[in-house]
Amino acid sequence: CRGRMGKQIRTQRKGRGSVFRAHVRLHKGASKLRKLDYSEGSGYVRGVVKDIIHDPGRGAPMARIVFRSPYHAKKDKELMVAAEGMYAGQYVYFGKKATLSVGNVLPLASMPEGTIICNIESRTGDRGKLARCSGDYATVVQHNEETGKTKIRLPSGLKKTLLSTCRAMVGIVGGGGRMDKPMLKAGRAYHKYRVKRNEWPKVRGVAMNPVEHPFGGGNHQHVGHATTAKKDAPAGQKAGLIGARRTGRIRGRAQLKKEE
C-alpha cells in the first residue's frame, strides 16, 4: 500500500481479525453462574448437576446445572465451570444460606477466612470472572466488615480486594494437572490449538526477513538490538518486551520491608 514501508507484522494482523478469530463452532457456551436474584440474596436455591461435559478449547470441564425457576413455571438451565469432585446427579445450593461444601455458590461474606474458592465474581452479579482455568483456585484471606470488602489471593499470587457481596464457588476448578503431561509431538499441539484459535505453529521473529519483523534479517539468527519497545511505539515496532520495567531473569527472593 502507498506511503507505508515494509509489511504489517503478525501482531498488527491479529488486531484486524480475518484469520485470527476464535474458533467457536464446537464451543458449548460461556461459563456463567446463575443470575443474582432475591431468592439467592435471602436464602438459597437448589439445583441438580445434569451432566459434566468437555468444552473444546477449554481446559476445565463444564457442568450443566438445572434449577427450578423461583418466579415462573419453568426450569433454568445454566452452564458453568465445574469444581473438582462435582458429579452428575449432585445437588448444589446457590445462595447466602447455602452450606460450605464443594460446588455450592455463596457470597464471600458467608465464607470463613482460608476457604478455597473458584469461579469468583469481580463485581457483584457479573456471574463469575476470576479463577476459572483448570486446576485454579483462590483463597479468602481477610474480611473487613466495616467497609464490606474481602481480600482474596488469586492464582497468580496477587491479592485483590472485592466487595463481600461477590459470589464464588467452593472448591478447586476441575481438570488440574493438565500442563504436567508434555505435548511430545506436534500433532497434539495441532489439535489443541485447532479448537482455540489460529496461533500455532508460531514462526520466531529472528527467523523472518527484516521486512516482516523488527527482529528479522542478519547473517545469523540474532536480534541485533534491545528486545524492549516503548509503550507509545508505533504498532509495527512493538515486538518483544513492551514497556518493560526490567529485563532478565529474576533471581533470589524479594525482601519485604518491615512495617514500623
H/E order of the elements? HHEEEEEEEEEEHEE
Q: Per DSSP, what share of the residues sits in E-state strands of 2 or more residues? A: 15-25%
Rg value: 23 Å
Mean pLDDT, nearest integer? 94
Question: Count the strands?
Answer: 12
Shape: globular
What structural class do helix, strand and pairing data support?
A: mainly beta
User: How are the strands of the biggest sheet laid out side by side?
Assistant: 5-10-6-7-8-9
Question: Which range best describes the helical content: under 10%, 10-25%, 25-40%, 40-55%, 55-70% or over 70%?
Answer: under 10%
Describe the sheet with the most strands.
Answer: 6 strands, antiparallel
Number of helices: 3
- Give the end-to-end Cα distance, rounded to a whole number of Å: 62 Å
Topology:
Layout: H1 10-16, H2 38-42, E1 45-53, E2 62-68, E3 75-81, E4 91-94, E5 105-107, E6 116-118, E7 138-144, E8 149-153, E9 159-163, E10 167-170, H3 186-194, E11 228-229, E12 241-242
Parallel strand pairs: 11-12
Antiparallel strand pairs: 1-2, 1-4, 2-3, 5-10, 6-7, 6-10, 7-8, 8-9
Describe the structure.
- It is a single chain.
- With 260 residues, this protein is mainly beta.
- Helix content is 8%, strand content 22%.
- It is built from three helices and twelve strands, in the order ααββββββββββαββ.
- It has helices spanning 10-16, 38-42, 186-194, and strands at 45-53, 62-68, 75-81, 91-94, 105-107, 116-118, 138-144, 149-153, 159-163, 167-170, 228-229, 241-242.
- The strands form three sheets. Strands 5-10-6-7-8-9 form a six-stranded antiparallel beta sheet, with no helix packed on it. It has a four-stranded antiparallel beta sheet with strand order 3-2-1-4, with no helix packed on it.
